[in-house]
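In response to a reviewer's request, we include the raw inputs and outputs for one of the modeled complexes. The two entities were modeled together in a single run.
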Amino acid sequence: SQTIHQWPATLVQPVGSPLSLECTVEGTSNPNLYWYRQAAGRGLQLLFYSVGIGQISSEVPQNLSASRPQDRQFILSSKKLLLSDSGFYLCAWSAFTGNNQPQHFGDGTRLSIL
Amino acid sequence: AQSVAQPEDQVNVAEGNPLTVKCTYSVSGNPYLFWYVQYPNRGLQFLLKYITGDNLVKGSYGFEAEFNKSQTSFHLKKPSALVSDSALYFCAVRDMDSSYKLIFGSGTRLLVRP
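The model returned the following structure tokens for the whole complex.
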């Protein structure tokens, strides 16, 4: 069966520090991958998605970036964090076979910026 | 513009009573619809989907949803609520402009009283 892993689960970082969040998927090949941010336990904001290695689509211009160095690895990065980057970051994957497939989510990283 | 609306921020129901969480959508063409549940500090879990066929879709944990094309609705239901059903529920629809993406509603918090 397929599994998705995100780490770390929680992170506290000072303003201006760099960020690297990692997400990996097991048990499937060529998944579509997604990064979301959830503020205040409510709505989801799609940040990036990827349909293949090295292919990244950005949804919202900001000081975050994403990379997909391997088929099942998705990384969210920042060179200098802002206070507004605080939130709950969720990684998700969906099968590449057809657009009727659900997305499956990891358990998230709660990021606090001090 | 495509959109998903969850008109209720919170739904309160007594344990053992039926529950309904409402969702309406606006897309061009035939919609692909999804329901997710989120427990505190966890990622979203896929409950069920409607793609085509029978308007009543059954999913995980005893939940079901009814697709109504004329009312553009996809309400989530359960005949008998459990306290453990208390969580945040999200409705989503496939983005017709980009089949890789989902458009999520703002979420409805379900509180089941013992």
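As requested, we also summarize the result in words. The CA atoms of residues 17 and 80 of chain B lie 5 Å apart. The mean pLDDT of chain B is 95.
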